[in-house]
Amino acid sequence: QLARGAFDKASDIAEQRLGMSSLGLHGAHDVAQFMPQGMQAAGTAMHRSASQFAIVAKDASVTGDLKGSVAALARVTQTCVACHAAYRIQ
Fold first, then answer.
1. For residue 88, what pLDDT is reported?
2. Chain-centre distance of CA 15, in angstroms?
């Protein structure tokens, strides 16, 4: 959606599926107790960065600033990659 310039849609998807308001859908509270502290912190960082992306993307629907949205999306991706690099199911 971001590539299409549908900033509002990109914002809504990010917040609903990955952002802080998605925690209930993922059952985050239920599974967090089984995660190491570092993994919990990485997960929280990812959810927060997704919510921050959602705000920047929503702003871009007014300003047209794709650069800020891409940078915010890169931060989301970085948090995902960092967690997946550090933690594996064995």
1. 81
2. 7
Instruction: Copy the structure tokens of residue 90.
Output: 């064995």
**Cβ-defined contacts of 80-88 (< 8 Å, 24+):** 80/46, 82/42, 83/39, 83/42, 83/43, 83/46, 86/38, 86/39, 86/42, 87/36, 87/38, 87/39, 87/42
> Using one digit for the tens of pLDDT, what is the confidence trace for 3-51?
999 999 999 999 999 999 998 887 877 888 888 999 999 999 999 999 9
DSSP per residue over 20-57, as a string? GGGHHHHTHHHHHTTS-HHHHHHHHHHHHHHHHHHHHH
